[in-house]
Design goal:
This protein has 210 residues and is an alpha/beta fold. It is 38% helix and 20% strand. Bound molecules: NADP nicotinamide-adenine-dinucleotide phosphate.
Length: 210
């Protein structure tokens, strides 16, 4: 399918090439098409990848991954054209710059705030509880990392489930979009463990069951 990825940083540069390797066409929305970072990501993405402006990339695909920092999200969304009918994949963690906690002013989660800023779109919270290292390689021995997602639209969740399977991660439906507040809190726990607990980024959450 056609996927737009806004941002070519750690997340965009991890997920884009992997989805392209699965046959998806990935168009990156970037500020500087000629930058070294964009060139490297395009090289990793191969023939299924291209880069254009953020606005054109968002217009070109039915599914848009927001792989940008929280503090620019509102202005980036406002700069896009109509988003009616689009699926917005929100992996954004509204983390304070010193990693000491979440930073939210008006809504209980970034995902719900994004849904309010982009009313015509369907927002799915996804990919925010896994590190970029896990996005590149989600295998831990015989186990797959778990990727939690939540949202209010079953068809859009089906798309995200398949995109997760394409990444070799285990998809777990975490319920309605209002549960994004818990997924964002989980990311804070992950960041605490990775940065202050000495775990680093080569670890992942895993649901187990019997
Ligand atoms: N890294 C992780 O392990 C991880 C895991 C889960 C979720 N996340 C979330 O994913 C998001 C991206 O994180 P990241 O680690 O990939 O960040 P990053 O490496 O800093 O990359 C950020 C990307 O956003 C772009 N960007 C910044 N401001 C922009 C603007 N105003 N308009 C358009 N593009 C803009 C940057 O482009 P330029 O090169 O032009 O600056 C860059 O490509 C964050 O919200 C983060 O919370 C990260």
């Amino acid at each position: 399918m056609d996927l737009a990825i806004l941002g070519t940083g750690r997340v965009g540069g991890a997920l884009g090439p992997r989805w392209a390797a699965k046959g998806h066409r990935v168009v990156y929305g970037v500020r500087e098409a000629g930058s070294e970072e964009v060139r490297k990501v395009l090289e990793k993405t191969g023939a299924n990848g291209s880069a254009t402006t953020v606005r054109e990339a968002a217009a070109a695909a039915p599914v848009i991954l927001l792989a940008i920092p929280w503090n620019v999200t509102r202005e980036v969304l406002a700069s896009l054209g109509p988003l009616d009918g689009k699926i917005l994949l929100d992996c954004i963690n509204p983390i304070k710059p010193d990693f000491s906690g979440l930073s939210l002013d008006e809504a209980p989660s970034a995902a719900e705030q994004i849904a309010a800023w982009a009313p015509g779109a369907t927002v799915i919270k996804a990919f925010n509880t896994v590190s970029d290292a896990t996005m590149v390689n989600p295998r831990y021995g015989p186990q797959q990392a778990t990727m939690f997602f939540c949202g209010d639209d079953e068809a859009a969740k089906g798309v995200v489930r398949q995109l997760t399977i394409d990444l070799d991660m285990e998809p777990v439906d975490a319920g309605p979009l209002k549960n994004a507040r818990y997924l964002e809190a989980m990311s804070m726990l992950y960041i605490h463990l990775a940065i202050f607990g000495g775990w680093g980024g080569e670890c992942a959450f895993k649901m187990v069951k019997r």
